[in-house]
Specification:
The structure is a homotrimer.
Chain A (H helix, E strand, L loop, with lengths): L1 E4 L3 H10 L5 E6 L4 E6 L5 E7 L6 E3 L4 E6 H8 L7 E7 L2 E7 L3 E7 L17 E6 H14 L2 E7 L2 E7 L4 E7 L5 E4 L5 E6 H8 L7 E6 L5 E7 L3 E7 L7
Antiparallel strand pairs in A: 1-5, 1-7, 2-3, 2-6, 3-4, 4-18, 7-8, 8-9, 10-14, 10-16, 11-12, 11-15, 12-13, 16-17, 17-18
Chain lengths: 247, 247, 247
Amino acid sequence: MKLGLTETKYLKDSIAVISELVNEATFKVTPQAIELVAMDPANVAMVIFKLLPSCFTEYDVKEKMELAINLNNLKQILRRVKPDDALTLEAEDNKLKITLQGQTRRTFAIPILDTDEKEQKVPDLNFGATIKTNASLITEAIEDADIVGESVSFIVQPDKLMISAEGDLSKAHIDIDKSEITQINVHDMNPLRAKYSIEYLKKMIAGAKLADDVIISFNKDYPLKLDFKTIDKVALSFILAPRVEND
Amino acid sequence: MKLGLTETKYLKDSIAVISELVNEATFKVTPQAIELVAMDPANVAMVIFKLLPSCFTEYDVKEKMELAINLNNLKQILRRVKPDDALTLEAEDNKLKITLQGQTRRTFAIPILDTDEKEQKVPDLNFGATIKTNASLITEAIEDADIVGESVSFIVQPDKLMISAEGDLSKAHIDIDKSEITQINVHDMNPLRAKYSIEYLKKMIAGAKLADDVIISFNKDYPLKLDFKTIDKVALSFILAPRVEND
Amino acid sequence: MKLGLTETKYLKDSIAVISELVNEATFKVTPQAIELVAMDPANVAMVIFKLLPSCFTEYDVKEKMELAINLNNLKQILRRVKPDDALTLEAEDNKLKITLQGQTRRTFAIPILDTDEKEQKVPDLNFGATIKTNASLITEAIEDADIVGESVSFIVQPDKLMISAEGDLSKAHIDIDKSEITQINVHDMNPLRAKYSIEYLKKMIAGAKLADDVIISFNKDYPLKLDFKTIDKVALSFILAPRVEND
């Protein structure tokens, strides 16, 4: 396996975001894509990541392989990438070798881990509402909610998405109206409502580094999914378990 | 009560500064102004704040009311104000409701506290010296003094203000000469001297966010007053008890 | 003794760097230069510093004198220097008096310490390799190495300098090829190798504030020397003891 890339942003930003949720993960490298499906240690959140060959200047993958990696190690190395560096990834002798060629040639090697972890399956979910909007609006709303509480309710009706949090004494409530920026698809006229952890949402919404827009899908007291996509390059999704109302 | 403002800076910066000194405070809202007089918990410093109706785009106050608020809560919400947001304040059901209307509509509610605190009276002080100067000169001088000690002496004579601090071994001394920038009014030819806590002065001088100039008033071993004013908009003053010479 | 300077950068940056390694030090002030030779408290690193009269606008030193100073005190004061300040240093009554003349006149005094420390002698070293290169390349290489380990090996051969670190599981290796930017002088065709503490190197390479280039000298399992020089102004060198291979 040998992979070369010059536009290092997609790999670097994705790993930075994913490593906030998952410590170790197994990348599946195939001729079609680099993929990752992983649960966070508390089993509350799932990460689904796909990086396409069109991100790479060289994509030499003869056969499918699995690479279990400590993501924190990988993140620390990717942080060292400078804008003009060309990056190469190679699997060699149970090591992932990362070469940065710029004014100097810098080579890092991190261990490929043994793992007997069974493959994570992406669950088949049935969403009642899908909202596409500017990721920064959702980032702001989650930061607003973070002032007053630890969990946040998403409530959607055909004309608006509402994000709401309540603390012991204080409240925050954000209305995001349907508009050119915000598309809302719901089947039901009744509002749908579900509650999620702000701590997790803050880590997930960082996917906005990869894409200006986010697609939010959820259902009544049901998991929420966030999708960040750049066509032909990268797709990063998160699934987050709901909090039950008496949390 | 309903108050609307688009130039949110005066309210936001004032609360940020005051909340460093006072945790809970009672605003007096009248048709003429929003006012606050409060002591810090250690009873060393007084804050006197006045925000005028001309800061507001809507100022609907039918009758005088008192609003006891946790200033830290209020500060956290005001931090979320973005430059283009229009801000509305309403008192409703023992809550202060704060609405930020920008690309989305964001509403926060914080409790109006019960308080049996009696009204603070601003003391009638008799100052021997008044200095008007650029607030940044005083900020710098206090930061200089902070390197060597915990308290600082203000010494004034007709031609200059001196700010002086002494640690176990080190000393700092700043001379600010009378000039176009620095106006000095003293009645006595003999230097006046008094000593104050640097920790408090650092919090108070942050009032420079509101006004370029500061008026400093003090007397021999007597309280010091700092005034920050923007005509027709806002006035923020602090009174600080002196340290006795053998502190 | 009275010294005046307007280009305060050389003094300020040097003291900031040196104070990370040495707490108290004795400056030798002569008509020819201000000099300092000091060991760090752990006796692992030596600092050799020289500031030339051409850095000063006034250099009035009648006779040789010694000034023992707490460098942290001095650094804190030099941090308060603003770009337009003229700085004056005077020795007076067992105090070093530092005056900053800008929009105000600010005077600091710190104690001149008693010291019975005997003068440090710069050791006579015999280096097998000398490399002159851009200091930022070495800074980057040390930061790269810092991700994986606590010590770093310098390996030099006629055509390149290699910097290499190994942790429990990860590795970093940087190749800096001979080029117009990187001059390499070695007498032997066999690679020379020695190992040093990354913690110390990070503090020393901060000398790059003073000069774009660094001269690195070392030998097999032998001390390393870093030289930062600005002609006619300042010279700052560090000598660092090697780590033995079984550290």
